[in-house]
Inverse folding.
């Protein structure tokens, strides 16, 4: 049976001791990893096909879609994701399932902030988190 993500939370560490749920996240995309490979084909290779070996792992950037809260503590330029981006700060993030288990925990930089202010309607936005280093994952 497929998993549901109702109740999924993304949490931001404040840099000292506390994790806080990022407010009004409407979608999380890009969570995953890639494996770099290096070609190892040599003159004695007889199959006619290239051979490769896996090398480094890399976490993909994660995009958070939000209902943007200009003065919200987890979005704003004083303590929130906008502040983290402008300060070029590395912060711990947790992505938690509805059962409160931590699915992924990682250090990220906020590398893209987009705010979409329509003439009428909800102001939305997105934040891109670019991980650095190894994550802690829970199956």
């Amino acid at each position: 049976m497929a998993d549901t993500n109702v109740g999924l939370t993304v949490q931001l560490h404040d840099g000292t001791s506390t994790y806080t749920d990022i407010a009004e996240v409407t979608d999380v995309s890009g969570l995953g990893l890639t494996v770099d490979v290096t070609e190892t084909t040599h003159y004695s290779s007889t199959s006619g096909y290239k051979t490769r070996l896996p090398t480094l792992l890399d976490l993909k950037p994660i995009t958070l879609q939000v209902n943007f809260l200009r003065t919200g503590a987890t979005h704003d330029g004083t303590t929130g994701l906008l502040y983290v981006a402008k300060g070029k700060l590395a912060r711990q993030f947790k992505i938690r399932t509805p059962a409160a288990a931590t699915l992924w925990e990682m250090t990220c930089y906020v590398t893209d902030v987009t705010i979409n202010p329509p003439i009428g309607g909800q102001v939305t936005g997105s934040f891109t988190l670019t991980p650095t280093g190894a994550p802690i994952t829970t199956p």
